[in-house]
Specification:
By secondary structure, the protein is of the alpha/beta class. 41% of the residues lie in helices and 16% in strands. The protein folds into two domains: 8-16 and 70-113 and 238-458, Rossmann fold; 38-54 and 116-229, Rossmann fold (3-Layer(aba) Sandwich). The chain has helices at residues 45-49, 54-61, 72-78, 90-96, 117-129, 143-155, 165-170, 172-180, 194-202, 210-223, 236-255, 271-285, 303-306, 349-356, 367-381, 387-406, 424-431, 442-449, and strands spanning 8-9, 19-21, 67-69, 86-88, 101-106, 134-139, 158-164, 184-188, 227-229, 262-266, 292-298, 308-313, 322-327, 361-365, 411-416. A seven-stranded mixed β-sheet has the order 1-4-5-15-10-11-14, with helices on both faces. Strands 8-7-6-9 form a four-stranded parallel β-sheet, sandwiched between helices. A two-stranded antiparallel ribbon has the order 2-3. The chain is globular. Bound molecules: pyridoxal-5'-phosphate. Pyridoxal-5'-phosphate binds next to α12 and α16.
Length: 461
């Protein structure tokens, strides 16, 4: 056992990576293009530029350059909370009595409480650089809204956050953090957009959904001068920004001669996992390693493990371009007793392609098992994990236990994406013993699949 490793490996500011890692450069043509739903043709830069910032579109469409320089202004922002520590989970190893070495990359050490700040900073910077004055977005649980509010405050942009109404009402503290950073929080559906008004008319009293909040934020961006929409996961440029996680990890591991046998991450839209694995996956695609890469999703929203690989809308209002991805159908809604995040119907097109081609695996876990792992982890490693992150903890623990049973020594790395201080209602239901698991039936999934568009590109699916 390699016990010469410190509990926490911190890089210095100088060692912080100067480049993001574009894994698509190793994917021989990236993935299938986004399609314009009106024409069925691949999206052009022009199609996208009414909604997204120019520089982000260039990054989105770039499958040539392996390394993309991180502008100095963004590095300065990153220095407020990066490099983030790579932690050797000695206490967890001891608790599990495992011969495995367990490491986690901790992204919760900033006020937003998650990795989402890595892309928020980049996207706010590019918006400012383009001369825009405001940006819009949606938020569900609130981590993304918080991260973007911090970045918008720093770079001097106005921000409207369309927050799913149930979260707006149930998470008043999250909402207040966002307002403290100067953003305007609008409960969605709202009367400020045509999309919101239409939904309110059809479903009076609705608590809203992410899909509806996206539609409102996109509409607002289209109709406000000098304004664009910003998305916190799924898209290739978001994964690119998140590759700072993997880049730092690789540097820290190389410095101590640590070679992971396994990398595990939770997957909602795929941005943290995509970012964590980027440089390792690049080497794997080049045949230079054979790391076992594993995505973990909730059993209640199993897009990779039970979804279809098809062209689908990225939002439930069916307004975005079509992306080829593993999807449960843009009309799919996880059961209301599903507590954590990771409730997106689709999955990053990059990860979908890599999964489809067999370069990574996926598994799903039930939420009571996830919270059981979260509580064990909190009590021995000290960090109170976000429920999303605890999906990765669950599987890392299971793998470490398997190592003990099989007498195998493996090096396991997982992504600890954030902290769970705003998820105490979910922890309460676990602690009270009232949390339940719901696994969608095949019929439930079939209803979602029926909302996948029946376009030409989906023939035979
Ligand atoms: C948003 C979020 C996730 C899931 O998003 P990905 O894009 O799949 O990474 C995971 N963990 C935390 C803490 C989050 O806030």
């Amino acid at each position: 056992m390699n016990s010469n490793i410190p509990y926490k490996i911190y890089l210095s500011e100088d060692e912080m990576p100067r480049y993001w890692y574009n894994v698509k450069a190793h994917m021989k043509g990236g993935h299938e293009p986004f399609l314009n739903p009106a024409t069925g043709e691949p999206c052009t830069k022009k199609d996208l530029s009414a909604v997204f910032c120019d520089e982000c579109i260039d990054q989105e469409l770039n499958d040539r350059d392996e390394l993309i320089e991180i502008p100095e202004e963004i590095r300065s922002f990153y220095k407020m909370y990066r490099p983030s520590p790579l932690v050797r989970a000695y206490c967890l190893e001891k608790l599990l009595d495992t011969p495995a070495e367990i490491y986690y990359k901790f992204e919760g050490n900033n006020t937003s409480g998650s990795h989402k700040l890595n892309s928020a900073a980049a996207q706010a910077y590019y918006a400012k650089k383009q001369g825009l004055t405001s940006i819009t977005t949606e938020t569900g649980a609130g981590q993304w809204g918080t991260a973007l509010a911090m970045a918008a405050a720093y770079f001097g942009l106005n921000l409207d956050v369309y927050m799913v109404k149930v979260s707006y009402e149930q998470k008043p503290f999250r909402r207040e953090v966002i307002r403290t950073y100067g953003a305007n929080v609008v409960p969605s559906p709202s009367t400020t957009t045509a999309a919101g008004r239409k939904i309110l008319e059809e479903h009076p009293g609705t608590g809203g959904s992410l899909g509806c909040a996206i539609s409102e934020a996109v509409e607002k961006a289209r109709e406000t001068p000098n304004c664009r929409y910003v998305l916190g996961s799924v898209l290739d440029h978001v994964l690119l920004h998140q590759s700072i996680i993997g880049q730092e990890c690789k540097i820290a591991m190389d410095k101590y001669g640590i070679k992971p046998d396994m990398i595990i991450g939770c997957a909602g839209g795929g941005s943290n996992l995509g970012g964590l694995i980027s440089p390792f996956m690049g080497e794997k695609l080049d045949g230079k390693n054979n790391i076992d890469i594993l995505a973990v999703e909730p059993a209640s929203c199993p897009s990779l493990t039970r979804g279809k690989y098809a062209y689908d809308f990225c939002d439930s209002a069916r307004t975005t371009p079509l992306a080829k991805m593993y999807t449960l159908g843009c009309g799919f809604m996880p059961s209301p007793n599903h507590a954590g995040g990771l409730r997106y119907h689709g999955m990053s097109p990059v990860l979908s392609r890599l999964y489809h081609d067999g370069y990574m695996r996926a598994t799903s876990v039930e939420q009571t098992k996830v919270f059981e792992a979260a509580v064990k982890f909190a009590r021995c490693e000290g960090i109170l994990p976000a429920p999303e992150s605890a999906h990765a903890i669950r599987v890392a623990m299971d793998e470490a236990i398997k190592c003990r049973e099989e007498g195998k020594k493996k090096v396991i790395l997982f992504g600890l994406t954030g902290t769970g201080y705003f998820d105490m209602t979910a922890y309460k239901s676990y602690n009270d013993g009232t949390m339940t698991d719901t696994i969608p039936t095949d019929e439930d999934l079939q209803r979602g699949f029926e909302t996948i568009p029946k376009c030409k590109a989906n023939e035979g699916i």
